[in-house]
Amino acid sequence: MSFPEPPPSLPPPRPSRLLTQNREMRAIGVWNWSLPAWAGRLPDGRTYNTCPSAGICRQVCYARHGSYTWPVVRGKHQANLQFVLDDLPGWRKALVAELGAQKFRGTWVRIHDSGDFFSDAYLSAWLQVIRARPETNFYAYTKEVRRFRTLVEPDAPPNFLWVYSFGGIQDSALDVAVDRVADVFPDEEAIAAAGWHSQEASDLLAVLGPHLVGIPANRIPHFLKLLSGRTFRSWQAEVDAERLTVRRRGRGLQPTAGPAPGAPDSPGSTQRNRAA
Ligand code: SF4
Predict the structure, then answer these.
(1) pLDDT (tens digit, 9 = 90+) per residue, 200-211?
(2) How far is the CA of 69 from the centre of ligand 1 (A)?
(3) Is the pTM of this model over 0.70?
(4) Which of 38, 116, 141, 196 is packed most tightly, with the most Cβ within 10 A?
(5) Nearest residue to 260 (alpha-carbon basis) of 237, 243, 239
(6) Given this model, what pLDDT does residue 255 score?
């Protein structure tokens, strides 16, 4: 008995629209591009990590909670990622074509409601999109500090602004004196007490307001419990210091009492041009 040949496997359907708007973003006229947050597995079995520089943030990631986990939303974000992974030039071309519509002129696109610039090739493709559409403004939060220092900062497109966000494994490369930075605080009062500036009124303040950007933590009880009154920056610094101590002990060295990673005078700090 013979069986018919199985049909050749078809590539997954490409998303018909790449940019979306949720209610909050529509209110301020911003469009969104999203990837699935952090690590996971695509329907075809491939594993991914879209936030390779995530640190403590992944434990309290807003995009791994609530509506982001609904199958239809997760499926859309995974389809976006599959398009990027399978056909980066085709994705770039499709995005530039979509951005040619009149409705995108003079508006803003937030790159990554969730996810990050996970590779040099992907960030470079974005830079080509941004340069191809100078009439649209783009912004992003990112924890990919070294990638931006190398690929973006030396020759940034004028229509692209970004803010480095604390809570990642590259926090110690940030300098709050010169970098535009965002940190998550327990609440608005803590932001004000630290002398930082809340972006709660409009997400665009993250790149258009003062350069120390405060974000109030999501009111999700178990996230607030984990945060335990700290900021992302101070929590990540604690974790980095603990790791350093363990590493030094492993090498038979005494723990040091130097500045916490991420502190302005820590060894990883460098003078940089402000991002925006
Ligand atoms: S970088 Fe952002 S999206 Fe990624 S795990 Fe951290 S909080 Fe979530």
Answers:
(1) 999 999 999 999
(2) 14
(3) yes
(4) 116
(5) 237
(6) 64
